[in-house]
Amino acid sequence: AARPSPDTPGGSSSINRGKQRFSDVGCALCHTPTLRTPANTTVAALADKPVNLYSDVALHAMGPGLADDILQGNARGDEFRTAPLWGLGKRIFFLHDGRTSNLIDAIRAHKSDGNSKFGPSEANQVIDKFNRLDEGDKQDLLNFLRSL
Prior knowledge:
Elements: H1 11-25, E1 35-36, E2 50-51, E3 59-61, E4 79-81, H2 103-108, H3 124-132, H4 135-147
Antiparallel strand pairs: 1-2, 3-4
Helix pairs in contact: 1-4
């Protein structure tokens, strides 16, 4: 993770609390903090190295709220590969289509009930937990995300 900015409200302690909230509510179930490179890679220097990607690189059904109805490979129109959060603090727009510049809106967009075409989002329970955080914990989580 990037070093906290001196301008971050609450500084590094807020970021550390936010990292814990990220895990507590379940964001890390899909936005896995660290993956490792394969041990048997052709470049020995790259073997078994940690990569702080914040993604499980898996496809997840996100429901009709995020669906774009575009089929790509084996992915249905409501399925998306978990976007890496690495570098999130440097982004202006969020989500697969850049529809928002508001990080809270981006988080809440992960919640979606099913409809006649797509089932509910796999992230619904996680977003319910996020929504139940008090405002201070939400701010800490946002500060953590912006530190990535």
